[in-house]
Write a structure and sequence with these properties.
The structure holds two protein chains of two kinds.
Chain A lengths: L7 H23 L2 E7 L3 H17 L3 E7 L3 H13 L6 E5 L3 H5 L4 E2 L1 H7 L11 H7 E2 L2 E2 L2 E6 L1 E6 H6 L11 H13 L5 E5 L2 H12 L6 H4 L13 H15 L13 H5 L3 E7 L3 H7 L4 E4 L16 E8 L4 H15 L1 H11 L6 H9 L2 H4 L2 H10 L15 H16 L5 H22 L3
Parallel strand pairs in A: 1-2, 1-3, 9-10
Antiparallel strand pairs in A: 3-12, 4-12, 5-6, 7-12, 8-10, 8-11
Helix pairs in contact in A: 2-15, 15-16, 19-20
Chain B lengths: L10 H27 L2 E3 L6 E3 L3 H7 L2 H32 L6 H9 L6 H12 L5 H9 L10 H29 L3 H9 L4 H12 L1 H17 L2 H7 L11 H11 L3 H29 L4
Antiparallel strand pairs in B: 1-2
């Protein structure tokens, strides 16, 4: 038998290899599957997202969710689309409500109900609150996981009210009262303007129509077909926007720009009242120096009857084409954030709505709403009235551009360049064109 | 004229290759892709591409908003070019005198060019915003007229023109200072002896002698105002109010990246490229005749 001498060099190499493998193998066994989560939350909300993710990551050892703020909502969506085309999409992407139709018809997503079924994870779909579920479901199944839903409410400056001789515990409930209070506030010098608004199309056009049970578009606000047309230039729209334009002249209403650019008007005390997302509660609690309160959206009164407001905010969509191991992690994370405890924590921290009835019940049982009545305003708007076909939501293609068109025409109207009727007619004409384009693009 | 001669046949191509590669990959390839996209109707996620020929272009040319954006672009580019070039020439004329602190003045005049246009936009936002800007606050003590550019289109346009001109001003002034310093003092002295006042010296001698620089800067500023100005508009007005500051390059971005209509965006970028090429050719053909090269 021939004896094979193992040289010293060879044995050292073998030792090194074994040693390296011993060190690497456990690491490989412990490597967590990464779940990439792209979102658009910033500031205090961004911190809350990171907290939530840290909780999940700490609660189990198989998956690690990596949150990444990609920019604003449109920027995040664009980034996700670009990544998807490069086959490098994230697992979860947060898309705002106006992107719903685009996502539904994209062929790039895995519906949430399907994901949970595939992963055999039980979710009580019936527990979610109706207005939120209705917005994001198709044929009774939920396609994206509601995450941060809000609705516009009225914020008001209690200190200014006191100075103007108004009862700080009573926010205005009708638009006539808003006008009356504004006049008193301006006359007494308590404020320079009565009220301002954020996200003008969402608050003043979409929500006002829903709140007063008026249709925003045909085909049940677009839910029933891609051939919808806008109805915002009818009697109610023209009357309401015309009134806003008239108020703009007396500083009862002061237009402050799109999205949240008018926030400083309220925070600085320039305007005593402000209509914006309920999601601002968290930020206002930390940053506003004066006493403030909230109230439900003002209502015209007869001949209109009240329905409910519409939700805004965003949901989490699951992207297609990811490996099965990652899909499991995605499903577990979505289950985690929709659990009652997480819902309650998220609501209390951010002011966004808790989306399950159990969470709301628990919050009520803990007297949370009694101690923080402002946080109940949003719920009240969504659940106290009756949901009608006009108030269950809006589902339109090219909705981002449509909002842009509407807001552009609103600016023309408030600047006095067009009358309310002219501006709204133009907005409807341009928007209908955009809807036709979308329908053509998505012909089955 | 000196000519550089390379011993090695391949060396010059090798040296030019990196720049050509970058230009091809980052400029020509996307331009060709844009050209291709402009002939299609593309779904946002790219899974559906239908050939529609010139449909995107016909939609553009029948859209009143598109014409408005073209007009806005010309107003904007014209405003920026005139202000940036004229102000730079004036400031350069002042900055080439024998005065104390000359170096300090010149440095300060050049600094704004180092600021990214987006940052300049934010600075102007903080100065001019109707809700939280300092200037409207002080103006409110002087006049009751509201320069509210969130509602008044012409105020918004003036604001972005001034902000963009301010950022590009430094670039122009650097060239002008060099140009003015290159004018031989003897020529100006001779004119002075002949009895020409400062204005006449300027129009008859200085201006013609810096005309090559003026020509170059006008072309460059125009192109810059058509393309690079996106940053200021995005930071300040986002095309508002009501589309008053929506220039072609901004509309292209909005339709493509926010509206997710890539076909229309591609068509718009093709038209924009054609316009700017046309402008540059026109300028070279007509204005260059008036330029006196020494």
């Amino acid at each position: 038998m021939r004896r094979t001498l193992i040289s010293r060099k060879a044995s050292l190499q073998a030792l090194f290899l074994v040693g390296a493998l011993t060190l690497l193998l456990p690491a490989a066994a412990f490597a967590k599957t990464e779940i990439h989560f792209w979102h658009a939350m910033t500031g205090q909300l961004g911190d809350a997202v990171n907290e939530l993710v840290k909780e999940f990551n700490g609660s189990q050892s198989e998956y690690e969710v990596k949150p990444l703020r990609k920019g604003t909502y449109p920027e995040t969506l664009t980034a996700a689309i670009a990544a998807y085309r490069q086959k490098a999409a994230p697992n979860i992407v947060q898309v705002f409500e106006v992107g719903t139709q685009t996502m539904l018809l994209s062929g790039a997503i895995v519906p949430v109900y399907q994901l949970m079924k595939e992963q055999d994870i039980k979710v009580d779909w019936k527990d979610f609150i109706a207005p939120v579920v209705g917005y994001y479901s198709k044929d009774g199944n939920l396609y994206s996981m509601p995450f941060n839903s809000s609705t516009p409410i009225l914020y008001y400056n209690k200190d200014a009210f006191r100075k103007a001789g108004l009862d700080p515990a009573k926010p205005p409930q009708t638009w006539k009262q808003v006008e009356e209070y504004s006049k008193k506030l301006i006359a007494s010098g308590a404020a320079k303007c009565g009220f301002s608004t954020g996200w003008p199309s969402w608050t003043m056009v979409e929500n006002m129509h829903a709140w007063h049970d008026q249709p925003f578009a045909t085909r049940r606000n677009g839910f029933d077909g891609l051939d919808a047309q806008l109805l915002i230039n009818k009697e109610f729209g023209v009357k309401f926007i015309g009134q806003l334009a008239a108020w703009q002249k007396d500083n009862i209403y002061s237009y402050g720009g799109r999205q949240g650019t008018a926030d400083p008007k309220f925070v600085s005390g320039e305007c005593a009242m402000y209509i914006q997302s309920s999601a601002l509660i968290g930020g206002f609690t930390k940053g506003v120096k004066f006493a403030w309160g909230t109230g439900q959206l003002p209502f015209w009164g007869p001949p209109y009857h009240k329905a409910t407001s519409i939700i805004g905010g965003a949901t989490l969509w699951v992207m297609k084409g990811k490996p099965a191991a990652e899909n499991r992690g995605t499903a577990l994370f979505l289950k985690f954030i929709s659990d009652t405890n997480q819902q309650m924590w998220w609501h209390v921290t951010t002011g966004y709505l808790a989306i399950s009835n159990s969470a709301v019940k628990n919050l009520e049982a803990g007297y949370h709403f009694k101690r923080n009545p402002d946080q109940f305003t949003a719920f009240a708007e969504l659940t106290q009235g009756k949901v009608t076909p006009n108030s269950q939501g809006i589902r339109l293609g090219n909705f981002v551009q449509i909002r842009d068109v509407i807001e552009g025409e609103l600016e023309n109207i408030f600047a006095g360049k067009k009358t309310a009727k002219q501006g709204l007619d133009d907005a409807v004409a341009k928007s209908n064109e955009l809807l036709r384009e979308f329908a053509a693009q998505n012909k089955p | 004229m000196k000519r550089t001669v390379f011993r090695n046949r391949w060396l010059p191509y090798l040296l030019v290759f990196p720049q050509m590669a970058v230009t091809l990959v980052f400029f020509f390839w996307p331009a060709l892709k844009s050209l291709q996209l402009s002939l299609y109707r593309v779904s946002p996620f790219g899974d559906r591409m239908t050939f529609v020929g010139l449909d995107n272009f016909t939609r553009l040319f029948t859209d009143a908003e598109y014409y408005a954006s073209v007009v806005n672009s010309f107003i904007f580019a014209g405003g920026v070019t005139v202000i940036a070039v004229a102000a730079a020439l004036g400031a350069a004329a002042l900055a080439t005198q024998r005065i104390r602190g000359l170096i300090a003045y010149r440095t300060l005049l050049l600094w704004p060019y180092g600021i990214a246009p987006a940052v300049a936009g934010i600075i102007f936002l903080f100065i001019f915003h109707p809700a939280y800007g300092i200037l409207p606050y002080f103006l409110s003590f002087v006049t009751s007229y509201e320069f509210n550019w969130l509602l008044k289109g012409w105020v918004a346009m003036t604001l972005v023109i001034v902000a963009t001109a301010w950022t590009h001003f430094g670039y122009n002034i650097a060239f002008y200072i060099a140009g003015l310093l290159a004018i031989p003092a003897s020529v100006l002295e001779a004119a002075d002896v002949d009895g020409a006042g400062p204005l006449r010296r300027f129009t008859a001698i200085v201006f013609p002698l810096v005309s090559p620089i003026t020509f170059y800067l006008v072309v460059l500023n125009m192109v810059f105002a058509f393309f690079e100005s996106f940053q200021v508009i995005d930071a300040v007005t986002k095309g508002g109010p009501g589309g008053a500051t929506e220039i072609m390059v901004y509309k292209l971005y909005k339709d493509g990246f926010i509206g997710l209509n890539l076909g229309s965006s591609g068509a718009q970028s093709v038209v924009l490229m054609a316009i700017v090429i046309g402008l540059t050719v026109l300028q070279f053909r007509f204005a260059e005749k008036k330029v006196t090269y020494s």
